Amino acid sequence: MIDVRLLTKNYGPYRAVDQISFSVKKGEVVGFLGPNGAGKTTTMKIITGFMAPTSGTASVAGFDVFENPIEVKRRIGYLPETPPVYGEMTVESYLRFVARLKGVERSRVSTLVERALERTELGPVRKRLIQNLSKGYRQRVGISQALVSEPEVLILDEPTVGLDPRQVAEVRDLIKELAGQHTVILSTHILPEVQATCQRIIIINKGKIVAEDSLETIGRRMQGTSRVHLRVSEGGEALVNKLRSLAGVRNVESRAPGVFEIETDGTKGVSQSLAAAVVSSGAGLLELREEALNLEDVFLKLTTSEESQQETEEKSPYEGAQS
What we know:
CATH architecture of the largest domain: 3-Layer(aba) Sandwich
Structural class: alpha/beta
CATH superfamily of the largest domain: P-loop containing nucleotide triphosphate hydrolases
Number of helices: 13
Number of domains: 2
CATH topology of the largest domain: Rossmann fold
Oligomer: single chain
Distance between the termini: 23 Å
CATH class of the largest domain: Alpha Beta
Number of strands: 14
Order of helices and strands: EEEHEEHEHHHEHEHEEHEHEEHEHHH
Largest sheet: 6 strands, mixed
Mean pLDDT: 85
């Protein structure tokens, strides 16, 4: 349904998207994950035809985004990061306007507008001016306009921004209901959003795809891996070296004086070995707590490092505005 090949976008000397390739099957709900400034929004704008790439191709339902832009737009419902709403219009009149703009047959406009209002629970405010609505309701109007033409593909960029917890849960339920009926790309940096709604994830960092897999596969990869939180009264470099030398220990990081985060391979008995090593070294064991790794841990591993932290401090002015 969606096919992206070697997509690249430069803003002057800054490369926001760097030769990324991926595909999304019909009916899939895919999470497009990455930290702020990773290139998510730039990629979404290119796929929807709002922005031209520097190089590479993107197609939707077999139509090239730039050779057949009208055909692509007929098949896409797009919620950008800032909803494209007109404050001087009422909710209902705006949705009717969007439906006509998207080429919906006049005989179907009323039916589709009613359906979009119902799905996003906007019925009680349908006659109100959009400019008088709360931020959360304006976000729901944005989602409604993406749905109103019943497109084959939905591209949602941060769809729950500004919503309260109840509304967030409702939008997540809605996205899950759309699976199979629509192909959905959900662009976000909120991990619970992905876990609650998506079948597969694509993680992008600094314009490059760093991981692409199903949540089930990632879950299997994480099985047997664990993290140990360790707190001691006295701990120096000698203790760190001793802990790193233990069988089953993959990494030891110092979070604060006497506080360590230890990644293990989940081998039975690693925690006991850690405890014994601390006691035998005389460091004074105060706390040892084991917990399984989750999606947040994987995300942080793939998107953070000393190098990326340095680049964040030196971030291009194009990055925050465009990606």
